[in-house]
User: Fold these one by one.
Assistant:
Number 1:
Amino acid sequence: MINGNIDGIKKTILDTLENLIDYRIPKDKILDEFVVYTLLEVTDAINKEVLIVIDNSNTVVAVGVGDHKAATFPDISKRIKKRGLNGLMSFHTHPNGNPKLSSADMSSLLDIKFNLIGAIGKNSIKEPLINLGIINNDEGNLVVNEYGPFSINKLNQFHYSELVESVDSFLRSKIHVDTLEEEKAILVGVNTKSESILDIENSMEELRELTYTAGATPIDKLVQNKERIDNNFYIGKGKLEELRIMIQNNSCNLVICNDELTSIQLKVMETYLNVKIIDRTSLILDIFAKHAKTSEGKLQVELAQLKYRLPRLLGLGKVLSRTGGGIGTRGPGEKKLETDRRTIYKEIHILENKIKSMKNVRQQQKSRRIKNHIPVVSLVGYTNAGKSTLFNLLTASNVLSENKLFATLDATTRKFKNLDRELLLSDTVGFIDKLPHDLIKSFESTLEGLVDSDMLLHVIDSSNKNFLKQIQLVEEVLHSLKCSDKKIIYVFNKIDKMCDDFDSQASTIRGIKSMISAKQEIGVQELSKLIHKEIFGETIIREIKVPYFDTKYISSLHDLGIVLEEKYEEDGIIIKIQYTSEVEYLVQRYIQ
Ligand SMILES: Nc1nc2c(ncn2[C@@H]2O[C@H](COP(=O)(O)OP(=O)(O)OP(=O)(O)O)[C@@H](O)[C@H]2O)c(=O)[nH]1
Ligand SMILES: [Mg+2]
C-alpha cells in the first residue's frame, strides 16, 4: 500500500512505487542506485515528495507520497517506541532538487525518532545528492545534525552507527524521554450533583486512570461546583482563569475535561487557554483506538471517532492540529483522522457498509452455532474487573489482560470444555461511567453477541470500593442492550484483595453469586460447577436397569456421554448415569 494522497497519480507510477515495498537494499549499503533513481524518477513525474521507510534489516517497509507525518504511516506508527530510536531510516525526495533538510524534515525526525532521515535532491548535472539528518544530544537538548551532501557512493561510506547508538542510549534514559514527549495534563471536572453514577471524586479518579492509560501524565486537577455545566466556558469564566494560571505554573500542555464537550466549549477553552483540550469521550476513543485489534473493532472505533468529530470540526482547533500527535489525534491503525466534513460523511457511509457486511458473516456463523447447539456464555463487567483474566483461565488461552482500562475491545469467543461439556465463552469490552452513547452504538454489533448468550457472567472487581456503583452501571448498559432478562451469575472477582466493607455491600446484591480470584485461581472450580448447573440444570446420578434387547437405547446413553458404570445382570444391565435436567426426557424410559 502506498501512503498519502495518491489521487490523480497514474497507475504505472503507483506500480513503480509499489515495487519498492519489500525491496532489500544490500546489507553494506544505506541506499542503492535502484532505490534512489526510482524515487527521483517518480518525483519528476508527479512533482511531489516521495518517501520510503527502511527497517533494520534494510528492507523497504513503507512507501508514501507527501510529507512525513506519522499519522499517514499505519505500519510505522506501531513501531514508534516510547524510549529510544525506532530502528527505522526514512528517505524522501525534494522536488526542487535541493537536498537540504527542511525544518519540517527535522521536526519529523525528532517526533518520529527515526535512526536517520535523508533528503534526496540532484546537482546541476542531475546526479543524486543526499543529505542526512541524525538526532544529536547537545548537552541534554535534542538537535538535528545535518551531514552531506553525499553522492550515493559517499553516502554508503558514511559511518553513522556510532552517532545513532549514542543518541539511542541517551534517549533511553527516562528523564529526557519524558521531557521530549510527555503530555502533561490538568484534569478538569464539574460537580453538578446530577444523576451521574459515580460521585465527582471517584469520577475524577477514573479520569486519572483513563489519562494514564492513554499515555499522558495527570499533573493536577480542578473541580468546579456548579448547578449546571456552562454552555460556553464549561467550568465558568472565572474558573477558567484559575485553570490558565494552573497550566502556566505547571507547564502543562493538555487539559482533559471529565464530560463530553460541545464544539463551542472546545473552541472557547482552547482559544482561552491555548493548549490542547480533550474531553472524556475523545480520551476514551483514543484508548479504544490504541486497543482495537480485529478489523471489525478498528472499523467500529474509527466510525465512533468520525461521528464524534463531525459536529466538532470547528472546536477541534488549532492546537490539536499544531501538536500533530498525542491524545485525540490517533486513529485505529494510526490512520490520519479526517478533517473535511464531506470526506467524513463519505467515510462514515463506507464504514457503516463494511460493518454491516461483517455483521452478515457473523450472522451466518451464528446460525451454524445454533445448529450445533453449543451454549454461549458471555463475560460482561466494568472495565478492569478481570474478565480477560477469567476468560484466559477458563479457556486456557491468552487474551491480553492488563491493569489498564479497556484492555479488551473486541469480543473474543472461544470454545472450551466446562466439566466435560462444550461451551462458547465470549470476552467483551468493559463498560465505564459516561461511556459515550455513540460508542455503545458503534460497538453494538460486537455486543449484540450478548443478546444471543445463554448466560452472562457479570464480573465484578471486589477490590474497588465503588463496585456497587459499577454493577449498577453495567446493569444499565445491559438494559440498553436488551439483555437485562438474561440469566446472570454475579462473579465477585479479586476476592484476594476485597475492599473494606465488601461483605455488607455484596449482600445487597440479589441473585446467583460466585466468589473467585481469577488471578490466584481461587473458587474457579465452584464457578465451573455453577455455570454447568445453571446452563444444563442440576446434575442427577441414578441407576437404571435396561433390558438386553434395547441395545439401541444403551448405545444412545453412551452417545450422550452420561454413563458412569455398567453391571451385567441376568435380566439386563444396571447402568449408572449422570445427567442434567435438559436430557431428563431421554432417560425417562427406564426410571422407576
Ligand atoms: N488481585 C487480583 N487482580 C486481578 C484478579 N483478576 C484480575 N486481576 C488483575 O486486574 C487487572 C485487569 O484484568 P483484566 O482481565 O484485563 O480485566 P478486564 O475486565 O478484562 O478489563 P478490560 O478488558 O479493560 O475491560 C489485571 O491487572 C489483572 O491481573 C484477581 O483475582 N485478583
Ligand atoms: Mg479485558
Note: Residues 174-180 have pLDDT under 50 and may be disordered.
Number 2:
Amino acid sequence: MANLKTNDFPTKIFRFDDLAKLADYSLLDTLSPDPEATQSGEDYRPRQVFSGHYVPVKPTPIGNPKYIAHSKELFRELGVDDSLALTNDFARFFSGDVTHVPEPMRPIGWATGYALSIYGNEYIQQCPFQTGNGYGDGRAISVLEVVANGKRWEMQLKGAGRTPYCRGADGRAVLRSSVREFLAQEHMHALGVPTSRSLCLFTSESESVERPWYLPGSKSADPEVMVSNPVAISTRVAPSFLRVGQLELFGRRARSNAHPGAMKELEMIVLHLIEREYKIEINEDLPIAEKTLQLAMAFRDRLTSLVADWIRVGYCQGNFNSDNCAGGGFTLDYGPFGFCERFDPFYQSWTGGGRHFSFLNQPFAAEKNFGSFCSALQPVLQSHPTALAQLDEIRSGFPAVMEEKLQTMWASKLGLAAYDSELTVQLLQLMAQTPVDYTIFFRELSTIPNDITSISKSFYKKATDESNLQWDQWLQKWRTQIDNRNSIDIISQRMKRVNPKYIWREWLVVPAYQQAEDGDFALIKEMQEVLTKPFEEQSEAVEKKFYRLRPQELFGVGGISHYSCSS
Ligand SMILES: Nc1ncnc2c1ncn2[C@@H]1O[C@H](COP(=O)(O)OP(=O)(O)OP(=O)(O)O)[C@@H](O)[C@H]1O
Ligand SMILES: [Mg+2]
C-alpha cells in the first residue's frame, strides 16, 4: 500500500466568508422599517417607536472579547466547521463589532418592539413613556439571518448594548446570566424540548457592570449587595424571535387605530410569523382569515406540547409573560428559570413569580399567554364574524388540548399504555409528601424496580414506615398497569428516553460561571459535555458528580434556590 500523505486528507478551513454566504434577509426587507428610526442605528437613547416592525441598531461591541464556548452541535446543523469559532473575524462579529463584514452581511442589526401581558393582563407601565411604545428588545440585537441546509435561522446577540428600548438600562448581560442561557439552551435541545439555540459565547476581559446579587450562602430573598461582573455576549439562534408580546403590540395598535397603517402592520407581522415559523403547516395561498385561524390552531398545538415537555423534564420558565413566550412555540428567555430538584408542584426559583408561574401551574400561565395571542389576532378577523367565533373556540379549547398533552406525557413518563388518573395523582401526592428528587425518581423508576430500594435513592428524607408502605403499594399497583404489550426491557428503554438522567442542577452550574469570572472555563466545557447528553448513562465519575441529590445546606440559598433578578 502506498504511503498516505497528510494532504491526502485536506481539511477545509472555514472562513468568515463561508458564513456570509449563508446570509439571507429577504423577508426582513419586506417588513416596513420604522419611518422614525434613525437609520444609522446609532441613536441609543430610550425613545418611543410609534410604528414599524423593527428599528436598525448598531451593536456596541464588548471590550477585549474572549472566546468561551460555541455549540458544536449547532455548528454541525449549520454546516459550519468548528474551526470558524476560533477565528478573529468570528470573534469580532459575535462580540458585537459588525462593522467590517463581507456582503451580503450588513454592518447593522435590528431590534424589535413588543408589548407585555402578565398572566393575561395587559401592561404598559413597564414602558418609560407609559404608552407601550418604548418597550421591546432592550439588549437583544439581531444581526444576521442565514439559510443553512434548507432551514432559516436568525442570529441574535444578547447583551450587545443599548437599543431605543433599553429604558435607561445599560444594554449589557453579565457573564453569569450569559453562561446560564448559553448552557441551558443546548441542554433543553438535547432534552428534546423546543428552544432557541446557542451559537457562541464571548466575555469581555476589560468591561464589567454592577448588578445586585447575594452574599455567599445568603438566605435572603432579595440580593444584598451590588456585585461587579464581567459583561458577555451570547448569540442565540432561532427561526425567529417573534414573541406573543410582539403580535400584541401590533394587535393593540390595530385595536385602538393608533395610526393609519396599524391594521396593515398587524397583518404583516401575522404573515411574517407564519412565514418564519409555520411555513410547512400553513398553505401560502389561503386567504388571510383562514391562515390566521390555522396559525392559532398550530400555535396552540405547539405551546401545549412545549409546556408538557417542560413538565416532563422538570423545567420551570419562571417568568412566563407574553413577552417571554415565543410565537414559534419554543422556549425563550432563560432568565429566572430553574429545574425542579426536590419535587414541589409550586416550585419556582424567581422570587417575583409567585404561584402563577410555578412548576405545575405553567399550563395555566400558557393558557393566559395563548389568550393574549388570540386577542392580538382578533382585529385581523374583525370583518369575518364566523372566523372570530372560530377563533374563540380555538381559544376556549386550550385546556382540553393541554390536558390531553399532559396525560400523554405522564403516561410516557410512567411507561403506561394509557394515562391513569388515580395512579398519577397518587404518585404526585407521594412524591411531594416524601419528598423525592424529580429526575432521580423517574430515572430509577425507568429501571422498573420490584421494590422501593432503588427509588428510595431519590428520597430527600428517610421515609417513615407508613410512607414506605404507601410507596410499596403504589409500586405494586403501578407494576400491574405498565404497558404489558411490550417486554420489561423495551418499556424500560422507552422510559429512559423520556426520563433524563442528567438535568440542570443550579448548585453544580454556579461554580462553572464563578470560575469563568476568574478566566477558567473548564467547568463550562464539562457542563456542556454532560448536559448535552442527558439521556445517556455517561461515565461513573459523571454519575457520581451529577446524578445526586442537592445537599441539604444548599436549599434556600440566594442565587441557587432563588433569585429576584437574574440578568
Ligand atoms: N441590562 C439591560 N439593558 C437594557 N434592557 C434590558 C436589560 N435587561 C433587561 N432588559 C429588557 O427588559 C425587558 C425585560 O427583561 P427580561 O429579563 O425579560 O429580558 P431579557 O432576559 O433581556 O430578555 P429576552 O426576553 O430577550 O431573553 C426585556 O425587554 C429586555 O430586553
Ligand atoms: Mg424577556
Note: The chain has a mean pLDDT of 94.
